[in-house]
Amino acid sequence: MTALFTLPPADILVGVDGSDNSRHAFLSAMTMAKEHNCSLRVIGAYSVPVIPHRHAPRISDDHHRSIGHSTQDLLEEYAAEAREAGIDASAQAIEGDAGEVLAEASRYSRLAVVGKRGRNRLASRLLGTVSGTLAARSHCPVLVIPLPDHGKGAPGTEDAEGPNAEAQQAQPGFENEIVAGIDRDSSALPVAEVAARAAELSGRRLAFVSVVPTDAGSSRGASADEHAGEYRAYADHLDEVTQAVTESGSGLVSRLQLVEGSAADVLLDASRSAALIVMGNRGRGGPAGRLLGSVSRSMLNRAGSPVLIVPNKTAQ
């Protein structure tokens, strides 16, 4: 795909395809742009169906152009709505895969916003076509927003597997807070800094949550002392990240939470009450080019709150 971007950079990028999900994402992006005096870029991707003609696939140039023009017209309606609200907004339709187009466009923005797709098991497993691809390959943080009636307080309803009872009992509520999932990898500090900035801008309380895997330090022959040492390593790392963010002036951390269990279960449970979950896009141990880690993928599919995915390379 060759994406030709003819617009100047914009602070916030929002992907629009005419669905209810993207409409809600657009309204959220417009609210943020208005509140923080940011510019807005509305991007839509389109593809041209191939029509078989004898032995060679062909499509008329007129039909090809009409698809692009109709997509551009739709996007211009969104941009015009934003401009009426006093926002510096532009729109561009680009031919290609939606996820890849948005990932490339993210090079020129500070935040990308998309709607969450999928209400059932099949749809949620196919999420990666757009929001998953963008979250995995974006050059800036990606905010994935579910529809407002998407089971706040009931993440995982579209999948038979929800947070287990143990995670729910271990995890206190995070009512209307910004919750940052802090892992022991290179994404920890960027995630913490972005979460602190989000809390500062929104005026919300901030919680840092680190999850010690249930089997941490419990390999064959490991002693109780070794298990306790692994737990302490997570606690020390959480303290180090908190101190770094506090010293940088990025914001105040209201509280720290260190729990043992499954990271996906703990964060999914937090999404029942949190205003926003902030996390990295890849798990530990995977190659840099790997797509979304299992925890990130699970959160995008099943979280009840908006999820902000921070690329590992994002440090500002």
From TrEMBL:
Q: Which SUPFAM superfamilies does the record associate with it?
A: Adenine nucleotide alpha hydrolases-like
Q: Which residues form the UspA domain?
A: 12-146, 178-311
UniProt organism field: Brevibacterium aurantiacum
UniProt record similarity statement: Belongs to the universal stress protein A family.
InterPro entries recorded = Rossmann-like_a/b/a_fold, Universal_stress_UspA, UspA
Instruction: Output this protein's name.
Output: Universal stress protein
